[in-house]
Structure formats: C-alpha cells, structure tokens
Amino acid sequence: MYDLGDPGLQVDQVPRFAYRWHTAIANDFAPWANDRIDSQKASKLTTDNVSGTEWPMFSAVLYLWSTEALQENWETNPQFSKKAPKDYAKEAIDAAAKLIIDPNNASWVKAHWGSGYLHKENLFYRMLLIAGLTSYQKLSGNNQYEEVLIGQVTSLSKELDESPYGLLDDYPGECYPVDILPAIAVLNRAGELLGMDKSDFVERSLRAFEDDRLDNRTGLPAYIANSKTGHGYGPARGVGISYMLIWAPELWPEVASAWYGKYEEHFWNEGSIISGFFEFPRNSGIDSFFFDVDAGPVISQYGVAASAFGIGAAKVNNQQQQFYPLATEALVASWPLPDGTLLLPRLLSNLADAPYIGESALLFTMTRQSLYPGSNNQVEHKLPYIVYLALVFYCCIGLIILRGSIKLVRSLG
C-alpha cells in the first residue's frame, strides 16, 4: 500500500521501491550464481530444458541491465539510496558476469551449434553475452572481458549485416525477431562503449522488420521468421511486441511510435476490473487460457509476460495511460514478503535453475525510463479495481493468520 504512493509511478523517474527490490536480489544472487558455476550443473542439462538452460543467463543479464539503470538514476538522485547500486551490489555484479562468461553455462548452445557456437548464428546466446559484458564493464570499470566483447560485437554485427534479410537463427531452423531487435540495440550500446560507430548498421537493420517479416493483420513483426527466406510466420504476439518496444525507440523512434499505436489498437484492453496486453490480437480465436515458457500464464487472453514487459514498453514510449495501471497491478500481484522476496514472480521462475528470473524481469521493466523526458502525457491516475481487490485479499489473509496466532497463544496459556 505504501509503494502504491511512490512518485515514480506517476512521474518520469525510477520508482524508489526498485532500489529495495534490487538490494533484496543482490543479497542472494551472488551465492546462487557462484554455486551454479562451481557445481557445473548447467553442463548436465539437456536442450529440452529451455527454462533451466536459457533463464539463468537471461536473469543475470536482466539484473545487470537493472543495475545499470539504477546506477544512472542514482547519480542524478543520490537521495534514493545511501550507497551507489554498483557498490552495494558489487558481488552480485561480479557473479553475474562470471556466470555469463562461464563455458559450462553454454553447454546447451554447444549441443546445438558445436564448437563454433561463438562464431555462427546462435543469436540469443551471443546477444546475452554481449549485453552482460557491456553492462559489467560500464558498472565495474573493469575491461578484463573487453577482448571477448570486441570480438563478439564485430563478428555478430558483420554476420547480421551480411545475412539475406538481417535475420539469424537462435537455434538451427529457429529464428525469433523478438531476439533480433534487442540484439541490434545491444550491439549499438556496446559500440558506444567500445568507440565503434554502429549508426549505419542500425539503419540498415530495419530491413529485418519490414515487408514479409510483418504480420499482415496487425502490421507488427511476426513472432517467428525464416532467416533464409525472410518470411514471417504466425501472428504477432504480446510477449514479443512488448519486449521489442522497450528497445525500438532508441533505434528507430518513428517506427517505434507507429508500432506502439498498432499494438495499442490490436492488443491493449482496458477492462472495468483489469487492464493489460493480450497475448494474441483481439478476436484472434486462439485459446484464452494457456501457459508456455515464453509467454508465461495467459489468463482470459491477458498475457502475464506481455503485460509485465508492457510496463517497460509503456514507460519508454511515454504512454503513461498504460504504464500506471500495468505497474500498479504488477505491484500488488508481486505479493512482497517480509524478507524482500516477490512471491508470485519467484513462483513463476524455475526454482531449481533460475529462481531470480521473475524478480529480475520485473525489476528490469520497472527501471526503464522514457526517451522523451518532460513530455509525459497528462492523464488521470486511477487504480484498476483489481488493485483494490488484491488489497482486500491481502488483508483477509493477514486477519486469518492473526486469528490463528491469537488462538495458538491462548492455547499455550
């Protein structure tokens, strides 16, 4: 209830509660990451275990991205935390970088691509490798991985540029534009750090999201594409468009603005009780209830991952009328515990292999900032009814626990 009044939910700044979330994850992230490296657990997993193989590295990158955003915000608003995020989270930052560079953690992509996994396609893994090492070097000032970083930035941007349609596969025969777009943004950011001008590359890379690569019905990038023919398959999906719209404005602002308008038209739903982004376009006829490893739970068409990443997409694109309801809904749905754990994101994670993916993803999306500062929409901030219902639910649970405790004390007396 206190966090619902955070000024960061209504103005263009990072919510203050993000620092508390970040600190809570930092306390546990380093021991978990170091244990995973030392145990070589990743080398024993099969390629069928998508969440167990992909999510540990993704959670490390999401945490580093969040740390980078909080550090930049803290340098302007040091009153938000007694210590700089890069200082109090130093152990977590170091451990995240070690996990990202760990060769055992790459066992699943080695199984797909063989010994050339760092030099041929394998876009998702290489994008995360570049992203994590870029954030690590920015935060730590340590250039120990710079040689690897330069090699990957040079080779991956060259390979994308020379591909027929600006597309590369994540796994053999599997190409997902949702990973191509952030890869372009990551390469551009790494180029800025390393003094490489990637502006021409960025301009040319828009071809990956034009023509046959678009979903005809919505005009948005298709979720799956054929990297060899340049043809997109199936409809656009909420989880993909939300995530891409976090990155698109820093690459192609006008294109991003047009995409957001189409996304709002076909996917946004503002109900009387709950608001959010659908996983598939409105009236698509696709199942209203299902679960998959990318979208998470889809409930009455609303995509949990689509709406979670939609928080960041709305903030970056300066769409306060979507950001506020999504952020407040996520805040109460997170079910914060006294030790700082966010219960629902933790339960939606892979508790055995990637316990912090949910919390790191929510922290990442909450720490995005508008690329158009000072031009926030003037909207009326109304809490969705689901927020009030959730608070009533929490109070009822609390009263039940309190009543049980009182009965226990009386029985002991």
Describe this structure in words.
InterPro entries: 6-hairpin_glycosidase_sf. The protein is mainly alpha-helical and 413 residues long. Helices cover 56% and strands 5% of the residues. The chain has a single domain, classed as Glycosyltransferase. The strands form three sheets. Strands 5-6-7 form a three-stranded antiparallel beta sheet.
Which structural class is indicated by helix and strand composition? Answer: mainly alpha
Strand order, sheet with most strands: 5-6-7
The overall pLDDT, averaged over residues, is 94
**Whole-number tally of structural domains:** 1
Order of helices and strands: HHHHHHHHHEEHHEEEEEHHHHH
Oligomer: single chain
Transmembrane segments: 385-402
InterPro entries: 6-hairpin_glycosidase_sf
Protein name: Linalool dehydratase/isomerase domain-containing protein
Keywords: Membrane, Transmembrane, Transmembrane helix
Overview in brief:
InterPro entries: 6-hairpin_glycosidase_sf. The chain has 413 residues and is mainly alpha-helical. The chain has a single domain (3-382), classed as Glycosyltransferase (Alpha/alpha barrel).
Q: What's the SSE blueprint?
A:
Elements lengths: L16 H23 L10 H27 L8 H4 L1 H12 L5 H7 L9 H18 L5 H17 L14 H18 L4 H6 L19 E2 L6 E2 L4 H14 L1 H15 E3 L4 E3 L12 E3 L3 E4 L2 E2 H13 L3 H14 L9 H5 L9 H10 L18 H28 L1
Protein name: Linalool dehydratase/isomerase domain-containing protein
InterPro entries: 6-hairpin_glycosidase_sf
Keywords: Membrane, Transmembrane, Transmembrane helix
